[in-house]
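User: Just a sanity check before I run the rest of the batch. Below are the structure tokens for the first item. I only need the designed sequence back.
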């Protein structure tokens, strides 16, 4: 990969891809035999020159964002994979209400059994390997009653 000038064909493909969001910068880099950063820099310059401000999210990008968030990828890694900034990832996750899902619904019967055995919220959370606050909110949502823990201590959700 060298520091060679961009051809008209490469620029045309890059512009079309920027509008349609078909390929990532990484994929374009392989196609053009350039680094991902070189493609990202050129795309930035084209946007600035042509005053292109919108970089809309596609359905596949949103699906990828949800999937990677649920797989516990950190924001920086997701930004790298999607060819966007960390700030863009953070904003989109906030706007779309995308959060990591512990997906504890399959454990509902086990939680109910442990609560019937007289275990406290902290003990159940430890048994299932969940944050206590997550378990507590889940139990409140599904009306599962368990003991609060040691007497005289306030629930802190930890």
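Assistant: Here's the designed sequence for the first item:
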């Amino acid at each position: 990969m060298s520091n060679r000038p961009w051809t008209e064909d490469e620029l045309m493909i890059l512009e079309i891809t920027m509008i349609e969001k078909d390929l990532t910068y990484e994929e374009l880099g392989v196609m053009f035999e350039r680094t991902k950063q070189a493609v990202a820099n050129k795309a930035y310059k084209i946007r600035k020159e042509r005053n292109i401000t919108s970089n809309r999210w596609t359905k596949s990008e949103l699906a990828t964002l949800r999937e990677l968030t649920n797989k516990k990828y950190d924001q920086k890694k997701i930004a790298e994979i999607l060819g966007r900034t960390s700030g863009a990832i953070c904003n989109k996750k906030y706007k779309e209400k995308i959060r990591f899902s512990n997906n504890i619904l399959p454990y509902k019967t086990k939680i109910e059994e442990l609560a019937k055995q007289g275990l406290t919220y902290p003990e159940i959370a430890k048994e299932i390997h969940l944050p206590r606050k997550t378990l507590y909110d889940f139990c409140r949502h599904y009306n599962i009653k368990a003991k609060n823990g040691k007497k005289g201590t306030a629930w802190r959700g930890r």
